[in-house]
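Box 4.2: Ligand-aware structure prediction
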Amino acid sequence: MGKKLIRLSLSIEEPLYKKLEKLVREDGYSNRSEFVRDMIRDRLVSDEWAAGEEILSTITLVYDHTKRELNEKLMDLEHRFYQMVMASTHRHMSECLCAEMIMVKGKPDQVKEFFNEMRKQRGVLHSGMTMSSTGDKLD
Ligand code: NI
């Protein structure tokens, strides 16, 4: 809050400038500054993951709960990694299909291990993991 704003000018080749303008427009940013801020933060988040710092992630699973023992296996995994699991939401999508979103906070290696253990289970039809941040170092 109340941080000093620094104005900067920079030089880039015209083709690259045009690409920047296109990206800013396509992503619906109202100005270049906010786009550049987000680009810097994206890089900082990648660095947090690479450095093995505590990060935030969401794991999404779509699965067929009628597959033998799948519910039990997924629940066992959530208990095995319980210290990382901050919240989870389950939504029944049809008579057979379930969607689950799990918010996790922890070290990248452990989050990836948790994700890989879940996604490889038979009956999991799709899975995704977002690479985000606790936000501590992004302002
Ligand atoms: Ni369900």
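In the box above, the bound molecule is nickel (II) ion. Residues 65, 90, 92, 98 surround nickel (II) ion (CB under 6 Å).
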